[in-house]
């Protein structure tokens, strides 16, 4: 490969073809493929390379703490989870339809693992996703109030097709944080899919978030377009026996 070809490939950002061309040219001398076959092979390699890079970029953006695939979830140890229902959710109709999913249950029953697994599945299928701890989200909301960037924060989260809010529970919240959270969920209503994992039943959200009228409106929107899974089973953090 001469310098001119190398520079053209570099300028066109054809990274994978640039990597492969010397070896492919050498192989072509022996196998003598048709021009069409030779070009198609290089283009397929470039396409696969770009898809892999995009997938890795989406994974990095998603900030998943552990890449727990649904295929590795210990369904046999958690009778509180309906495997068939989870596999149906893994078809991602709820993401495409902008439905919500709320996983309710005590600590250790697998809520976060299921949320991560569904998020991974969405990313594998080309969707943009984000995993965030509820405490971190509310901290970011509080910080956005100080520099008046709450709208910018909401707009950024609106670009996320599947948002996973993990461990929504009793936090020390100010009323302003509740306001921003309501605005976020209202903006995502019927537009984007959200997964919430929590140890709180819906009636306990009033104590947690305060502002009863606002919470009533929030729950009305959240549950209108929502699947609620209550996991009543053993802790998966206990040793298997």
Polypeptide structure, described:
This protein has eleven helices and five strands. α2 (15-31) packs antiparallel against α3 and α3 (35-62) runs antiparallel to α6. The termini are far apart. The mean pLDDT is 90. The chain has two domains: 3-59, no CATH class; 70-230, P-loop containing nucleotide triphosphate hydrolases (Rossmann fold, 3-Layer(aba) Sandwich). By secondary structure, it is α/β, with parallel strands linked by helices. It has helices spanning 3-11, 15-31, 35-62, 83-89, 93-96, 111-124, 134-146, 150-158, 175-188, 205-209, 212-224, and strands at 100-104, 129-133, 162-168, 193-198, 226-230.
The CATH architecture name of the largest domain reads 3-Layer(aba) Sandwich
User: How confident overall, as mean pLDDT?
Assistant: 90
Largest sheet: 5 strands, parallel
Number of continuous helical runs: 11
**How many domain units?**
2
Radius of gyration from CA coordinates? 23 Å
CATH fold label of the largest domain: Rossmann fold
The CATH homologous superfamily of the largest domain: P-loop containing nucleotide triphosphate hydrolases
Order of helices and strands: HHHHHEHEHHEHEHHE
From the spread of the alpha carbons, the general shape counts as elongated
In total, how many beta strands? 5
What is the assembly state of the chains in this entry?
A: single chain
Strand residue percentage: 5-15%
């Amino acid at each position: 490969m001469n310098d001119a070809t190398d520079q053209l490939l570099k300028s066109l950002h054809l990274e994978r073809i640039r990597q492969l061309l010397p070896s492919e040219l050498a192989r072509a001398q022996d196998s003598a493929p048709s021009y069409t076959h030779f070009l198609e092979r290089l283009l397929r390699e470039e396409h696969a390379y770009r898809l892999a890079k995009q997938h890795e970029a989406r994974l990095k953006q998603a900030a998943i703490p552990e890449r727990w695939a649904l295929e590795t979830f210990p369904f046999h140890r958690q009778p509180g989870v309906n495997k068939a229902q989870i596999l149906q959710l893994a078809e991602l109709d709820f993401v495409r339809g902008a439905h919500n999913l709320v996983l309710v249950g005590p600590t250790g029953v697998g809520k976060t693992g299921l949320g991560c697994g569904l998020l991974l599945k969405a990313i594998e299928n080309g969707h943009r996703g984000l995993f965030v701890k509820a405490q971190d989200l509310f901290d970011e909301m509080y910080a956005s109030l100080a520099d008046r960037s709450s709208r910018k924060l909401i707009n950024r989260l609106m670009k996320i097709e599947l948002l996973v809010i993990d461990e929504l529970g009793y936090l020390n919240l100010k009323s302003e944080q509740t306001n921003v959270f309501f605005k976020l969920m209202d903006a995502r209503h019927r537009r984007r899919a959200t997964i919430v994992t929590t140890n709180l039943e819906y009636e306990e959200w009033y104590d947690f978030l305060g502002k009863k009228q606002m919470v009533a409106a929030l729950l009305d929107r959240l549950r209108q377009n929502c699947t609620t899974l209550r996991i009543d089973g053993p802790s998966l953090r206990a040793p298997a026996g």
